[in-house]
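Dear colleagues,

As part of the handover before I leave the project, I'm documenting each prediction I ran so the next person doesn't have to rerun anything. This entry is a single chain, and its sequence is reproduced below.
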Amino acid sequence: MGILNVTPDSFSDGGRHAIPAIAIKAGMAMIAAGADILDVGGESTRPGSVAVSPEIEQDRVLPVIRALAASGALVSVDTRHASTMAAALAAGAAIVNDVSALTHDPDALSVVARAGCPVVLMHMRGTPETMNGLACYDNVVSDVRAELAETLARAVHGGVAAERIALDPGIGFAKTAEQSLALLRGLPDLATLGRPLLVGVSRKSFIGRIAEQPDAARRVGGSLAAGLYALSRGARILRVHDVEETVQAVRVWSSLTN
């Protein structure tokens, strides 16, 4: 899953794809490089980020989604807002990816259930503005597993077919660097929930801390290492900035391990 942030303030690539024509070109390049899914987002959810209105978000993402979907790309919309989900699906998006697991907007669950589309439900506590203060767990793996199980049950009870749900442990979202590492080691426990796991480690701060690299754009090597480790522990989808490098690494890793 290639990350396409159509935002001015995302933590790693904010502003790079703020113009629709540039974003569309970047998305096409990701597909050419081997991305299976393009995840288009118009609201930054980095720690401390400020929410934007659905109207602003839609102005950013809909032209990009429409063009990429028309080209044949499989597009996911990265949003917490029900109206953006509905508009993006109408514009050609096929998947909803919600960092709030359909809890931020009271209408989100019904939108996804009616659409019958695949959805990614991510674990996060609080909001991007408050999550850093909520990284308190007795055992991060078992606690996240229990909370994801509740999230999964809620979605199914609300009409979303279980086979259309993927789960994301939310690396870096209401987790310290140490907790993020523990979650990656504990992915097999999360996989027992019976749903595919999507993992996003690309360029994140825990990699910067380990590698002593403050520049997010220079964390490609660490991102590849963490991504391959996640695959070895049961992840099925990697959400990445660096598609070409990741595809190459995964192909070599797969050849060696299979």
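DSSP finds ten helices and eight strands in the chain. Residues 140-157 form the longest helix (18 residues).

All the best with the project,
I.
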